[in-house]
Amino acid sequence: xxxxxxxxxxxxxxxxxxxxxxxxxxxxFYFEPEISAEDCFEDIxxxxxxxxxxxxxxxxxxxxxxxxxxxxxxxTGKELVARAIHNLSSRRDRPYVRMNCAAIxxxxxxxxxxxxxxxxxxxxxxxxxxxFELADRGTLFLDEIGDISLELQPKLLxxxxxxxxxxxxxxxxIHVNVRMIAxxxxxxxxxxxxxxxxxxxFYRFNVFPIEIPPLRERREDIxxxxxxxxxxxxxxxxxxxxxxxxxxxxILTNCPWKGNIRELANFIERAVIVTQGDQLEIPAAMVPTxxxxxxxxxxxxxxxxxxxxxIIDALRSAAGRIAGRGGAAERLGLKRTTLQNKIRxxxxxxxxxxx
Length: 355
Description:
By secondary structure, this protein is an alpha/beta fold.
């Protein structure tokens, strides 16, 4: 992809939408060394309606001890949200224990969760506390709970519901006081229908669900994220990168970022590494899936099609509902009337999102 690509239809994501990155001079954006407190909370950067909805939900549930279920694609920042909820709670001075259920072999997962006694199995040379015990009076964050085996789910249900369990190799019941936060990128309702996830465990976790929006649904936050990552990396690498061209920022804003914020962060790190001067360099070969990211002069409808696709996906996920909790408007971070106007403008029909 050439750096001279023209963008004819950027909708709300044109260069004039980036006032918080810094002043604009000579067709460049100048990075601010620090992101304002208004745009960054607990390393969660942005001010889009979709993200503000997440922050509002965090503020509501954090003071309680209720279980929270975070759902979102890989790389959307679910762990940051979980840690922020802990830091906003009355347990902030107590342990925050994290475990990625997908990163631990299923045979070891029970021991990791509940601990074991010496001699409980081959290789158990000493007593070991599990994550539940370590998180007592604090918060336990279980990432990727959709990867927990069906065999272990009944024991997890008891631990979450009754706040009690036994270590492997022990008959003594241990009682704890743990606030649970779980996260997954999987559709647990589909897994229930496929009998891969227990329905009772799902409802135990789904007390207060929070949907973390993908980066494509909060593109107006990308300039702030670029500023945040560049400033952070420059301090670490001792570089002096002060600006990015308007055209480069538009390219970044219109990339698909299938890996979401994690992919953007990795891309910006590569860009900072190769940059030699004071303007961030974005070589065309580094831009992810370039053929899908260009909104060219010859294809003015591409952005319109992309916007229509995002709305249709949200309507399908919400079973056609526009308003209300879990509706398409809430998922997209839009007002009901705004979404209805977009549906009419784009000519979206029920047949396109009804399954």
